Amino acid sequence: MRQFFESPRIAEVARGRNNNFNLLRFLAAFLVILHHAKPGNLLPIYWLTNGREDSGSTAVLIFFAISGFLVTQSFTRTNLAGFLSARALRIFPALWIAVPFTIIVSSFASAVPWGRYLTHPQTIRYWVHNSFLWDLQYTLPGAFLHVPLARSVNGSLWTLPAELRMYWVCAGLGLLGLYAARPAFNALLAALMVAGMIVRPETLPLVGTINVAQWEFTFLIGAAFFLNRNEIRLNIPLALALLVASKYVIEDPYMGHLYIVPAMAYATLCLGLHPALFFRPFTRFGDYSYGLYIYAFPLQQQMVFYHPQMNWLKRLALTFPIILGVAVLSWHFIEEPALRLKQRFRPKPLPPVPEATADFLVASRG
Predict the structure, then answer these.
(1) What is the pTM assigned to this prediction?
(2) Over the stretch 110-128, which tens digit does the pLDDT of each residue have?
(3) Using an 8 Å Cβ cutoff, are 288 and 23 in contact?
(4) At residue 253, does pLDDT exceed 70?
(5) 213/26 Cα distance (integer angstroms)
(6) Is the pLDDT of residue 217 over 50?
(7) Could you write out the three-class secondary structure of the chain?
(8) Structure confidence by residue, pLDDT tens digits, 127-174
(9) Residue 233: CB partners within 8 Å, gap ≥ 6?
(10) How confident is the model at residue 214 (pLDDT cuts 50, 70, 90)?
(11) Nearest one of 262, 215, 198, 197 to 206, comparing CA atoms
(12) CA 212, CA 181: separation in Å to the nearest integer?
């Protein structure tokens, strides 16, 4: 119990795989699935944030906080080629399966004949654009016309372009030397936060909407936690207080979006890294969260299409094991094998110095 109230520095506990990040991402992916099963104010999150956030948007903040922390860490530990290859191998192999998977699943909810469906310009556009996260397409010919989330075939993909964009931002900030000059990075982040309070954040470069502004600020705050890991302490009561305060500290819905970002990021890092909360058994499993995220939506839409009168909770109970099964297969046969390839892009260690040369160097310095 005493460990619960301890406040270790992030640098003291962010070592190896002794963390809950896989568990948190899994739960966040489930929150997204839950939100798509029952949109609206289902969970206390909606009440706690005065309607500013729902389970889906909260889950995305969790994803971006963890991503900002780990992706920045990744950049500081490898070269540019290693960094970019690792990011591409994490995003694209499973995506290149999820896109045709969505096309096939959605075809069963379309009245368009199979041959015309596959060769339809809309289908080809969906395949090409979504495979490279460029100008995302959300509809397929005749698919899901009469369900609550009408026409949308895989709405979950809409966060991925922002995630990919932040990988490039992360690399750019690193190449500019801002990770080595930590005060400069902190000053830049503070300036961006102030700018977000003065003007609408969605008007800032590389943003576009208030949602994207939240995600990108959360990523940068996650990065700041990594860079300031020797100074920032993790305190569970403080994390809880920050979350509870989100209901009272700022009533204005617009400013509330800005408050929830650092509060949620700190709480996420606390849940992920504080040793009192570490749940070791989950580390034995793979990281199924990405598969849950990118394959779930079309399967949920299909269940609604075939069983429109079924209770949402029963639909979720029937659909989630299928989604989880697809995510497990994706991890073990697509994602994990792809990630193993990133070893080829890491800088090779220098060859060991021959003993005779080493002895000579020691003697010459003596």
Answers:
(1) 0.90
(2) 999 999 999 999 999 999 9
(3) no
(4) no
(5) 23
(6) yes
(7) CHHHHCCCEHHHHCCCCCCCHHHHHHHHHHHHHHHHHCCCCCCHHHHHCCCCCCHHHHHHHHHHHHHHHHHHHHHHCCCHHHHHHHHHHHHHHHHHHHHHHHHHHHHCCCCCCHHHHHHCHHHHHHHHHHHCCCCCCCCCCCCCCCCCCCCCCCHHHHHHHHHHHHHHHHHHHHHCCCCCCHHHHHHHHHHHHHHHHHCCHHHCCCCCCHHHHHHHHHHHHHHHHHHCCCCCECCHHHHHHHHHHCCCCCCCHHHHHHHHHHHHHHHHHHHHHCHHHCCHHHHHCCCCHHHHHHHHHHHHHHHHHHCCCCCHHHHHHHHHHHHHHHHHHHHHHHHHHHHHHHHHHCCCCCCCCCHHHHHHHHHHHC
(8) 999 999 999 999 999 999 999 999 999 999 999 999 999 999 999 999
(9) 7, 8, 9, 10
(10) confident
(11) 215
(12) 27
Q: Cβ-count burial of 114 within 10 angstroms (0-12 exposed, 13-18 middle, 19+ buried)?
A: exposed
Residue carrying the six token digits 């079309």: 298
CA distance 63 to 189: 19
Question: In the chain, where are the structural domains located?
Answer: 2-345
User: CA-CA distance, 320 to 39, in Å (whole number)?
Assistant: 16
Regarding predicted confidence, which is higher, 295 or 256? 295
Q: What are phi and psi of 28, to 5 degrees?
A: -65, -40
Structure tokens at 268: 């996420």
Q: Which residues contact 327 (CB under 8 A, 6 or more apart)?
A: 288, 289, 290, 291, 292, 295
